[in-house]
Amino acid sequence: MAAHAKLGSLRSQLLRWLLIPLTLLVAVDAVSVYYNALEVADLAYDRSLLASTRALAERVSVVDDRVIADVPYVALDSFETDTLGRIYYKVTGLKGELVSGYGDLPPVPPDVKRSEAYPALVRFYQADYHDQPIRIAALLQPVYDDSMRGIVLIQVGETMDARNGMTRKILFDTLWRQGTLVTVAALLVWVAVRFVLRPMMQLRGEVESRAPTDLSGFDPALVHKEMRPLVLAMNGYMERLQTLIAGQRRFIADASHQLRTPLTVLKTQAELSLRELRRGQHDPAELRELVEGMARTTDATVHLANRLLTLARAEHGAAEGGTAPVSLSDAVRQVALELSQQAVMRRIELSFDSEGDIRIDGNALLLHELMVNLLDNAIRYTPEGGRITLRVYAASEPGHATRALLEVEDNGPGIADAERERVFEPFYRASATQHINPSGTGLGLSIVREIAALHRADIVLERSPQGAGLVVRVAFPGVIEVRL
């Protein structure tokens, strides 16, 4: 129960399994989009910074063997207006001397490589200048005149305010768009889940509105194809439940009907005994006969009750222990020993024949009940001085694997061909046996049939090869082992 309670709501689980992966995918996509946008923004700003550096390089020249830079303030103001940040520049001459600009601008780090994105000798790097980060483009510009030539270094840096502003804008735009996407997706998924689960909710309503006695099946077409096996399983379960309830009702009706007569007889015998005792001068022989009749009736009632309980247990497979390897030979031998005293009292010759130790997979307790009923019936309906033979052997039949067979053969009155199917019905008794044992219950072969069905065994009634009598043959599938 605790494991089932942890499952929680199907709707919430579907939403979690759909929305959590979707949210993770959107988050990964948002990070990817954000960094791609930053890369594009850096590329755009670096291009603008390189354009400013080239514009400054065009104003560097050699005059009278000296490098000069003609940088008007109007040009710098134009740069500042375009980039929305503060501009710093520095022009270094052929011998490393300061030509123009900010002399303390951070130098180019030695490990910075030339940018491959532009056809120019330019390197980009970041540094701190006056306690604020700046991005610097360092361009090597060739200069020459008739008397000298060389390369000057032109550095132009800008503050990161504009870049950071665009970064924040990209971040907020990305988060807003992806958040809107997740919200809309969550709403659509929620609506879709409610729509998809509507048939299940309708099925639940139909289950809740059913009367307790209504065990009819549900229409599988009410739910989706994936849920139909569950509905079919529920219908199958209710069919089995109907069978179980019908069996219980039949058992109660049969038990009450069959027990009513012996209990009535027992009550009558007890009242007659009490009447004899009240007379004062009662006949001891007559009283003894009444008490003996009460004992016989009690024995018959106990026997009937035990048979009814065994039949109910066999019908519902309620024996404890499940199935396990069972020695059929040993089980039959044990039952023969248990009932041998009854056979001796009736001077019946009881023999047992087994082709080795044959083992099958079965329920030991139910198999014991099956053998007891077969042998008990044979002893009850075999005349005094008769014979009963028990056989256990393995045989291969066409179309079947090797099977274990149990045979009980007697030389009693047998069962007519027309009655061999009906004797398996509860309380039905063959006409040839009723005068032999008037107190019989008619439940023995019903119990045998139910136990055989639980073991997927076939049961057959045949005339004895000796002429008179009956052979009951039970064929069990799947021999596990035969020990000779």
Can you describe this structure in just a few lines?
The protein is of the alpha+beta class. The protein has ten helices and 15 strands.
Walk me through what this model shows:
- This protein has 484 residues and is an alpha+beta fold.
- The protein has ten helices and 15 strands.
- The chain has helices at 2-5, 10-57, 73-83, 161-209, 228-278, 284-316, 328-345, 364-381, 431-434, 444-454; strands at 60-63, 66-69, 87-92, 98-101, 122-129, 132-144, 149-159, 324-327, 349-354, 357-362, 387-396, 402-410, 458-463, 470-476, 479-483.
- A hairpin with a 2-residue loop joins strand 5 and strand 6 (132-144).
- The two termini are 50 Å apart.
Which helices and strands occur, and which strands form pairs?
Layout: H1 2-5, H2 10-57, E1 60-63, E2 66-69, H3 73-83, E3 87-92, E4 98-101, E5 122-129, E6 132-144, E7 149-159, H4 161-209, H5 228-278, H6 284-316, E8 324-327, H7 328-345, E9 349-354, E10 357-362, H8 364-381, E11 387-396, E12 402-410, H9 431-434, H10 444-454, E13 458-463, E14 470-476, E15 479-483
Parallel strand pairs: 9-11
Antiparallel strand pairs: 1-2, 3-4, 3-7, 5-6, 6-7, 8-10, 10-15, 11-12, 12-14, 13-14
